[in-house]
Design brief:
The chain is α/β, with parallel strands linked by helices. The protein is built from 15 helices and twelve strands. A six-stranded parallel β-sheet has the order 2-1-3-4-5-11, with helices on both faces. Strands 7-6-8-9-10-12 form a six-stranded mixed β-sheet, with helices on both faces. InterPro entries: HTH_LacI, LacI/GalR-like_sensor, Lambda_DNA-bd_dom_sf, Peripla_BP_I.
Length: 346
Amino acid sequence: MQDIARRAGVTKAAVSFALNGRPGVSEPTRRRVLAIAHELGWQPSSAARALSDGRAGSFGLVVDRPARTLGLEPFFMQLISGIQAELVRDATPLLLTMAEDQAAEIALHRGWWARRVVDGVFLVDLRVDDARVPVLAELGMPAVVIGAPLGTGGLPAVWSDDDAAVVTAVRHLAGLGHRRLGRVSGPGRLRHTAIRTAAFERVTAELGLAGTTIEGDYSGGTGAAATRALLGAPRRPTALLYDNDVMAVSGLTAAQGLGLAVPGDVSIVAWDDSALCGLVHPSLTALSRDIAAYGAHAARRLRQAAGGGPVADLQDKAPSLTLRGSTGPVPRRVAGTGERRGRAPE
């Protein structure tokens, strides 16, 4: 600051005002100070800033999914890219880490806030009974939930309508003549899984369809195992809906391994369209949304919350169905005679 003040011909106090965006200096002086600071390669000290105004200048995201599933799932990579694209606008870093369970995540949040490591956090994978919400309220820690505004304890949420997306997918399959549907869900403890399951059960009942859900964990292994279980039933489903793209791709391979044609014998719909859905044959019909934009919305709201301003929930666009080669009319032999093709799983 002394070097900048000397070069600019102003006091150190004026430099402080200019660098921190505070009133007290003219706009020409502010621009001159910032230009000299840039020329000298000056960077703000987060430690010094935290001491002076209590701000860390960074945000945090803790994920307590297994590393093997997180590393493979495009959803989180797209979400993080959207968050980063927004935060880079004011050079705010994102502190990303993983926890083995929710208790470990809560301990991280407490430690971060006590040491002012972050100014706020993103909450993902909200649970039906989420222990993080009351803790953050107790701490007074700014946070934004990425998920439905249910059980959020007043925390702002950025979300899309999972219920409406399920209805869209099921009605599409029913319109193709499918009467027996299978679904491979995410973990049942998650709030968005509960919303999707309730919607699936409701809409299949309303349309007079038979619907069966098997719980998975978003990994390819559980997607394949659940697919074999569903397609090994005496009256197997003629269409399958998966809660993410990784399980859907594995389900496609499993179905083909049983000697079933897609979509000739069974139709497949994936959740959260990604490049994976277009790299397989046939390419997968999928529920699509702009996940990167979703992350950017959340980042803007967390910035507002950390600044002390009021922040409202934001409902993003509901996922739309992108039609590809994995869905087609119900097989005639199944619709007319109940005959099934393919070998039984071993």
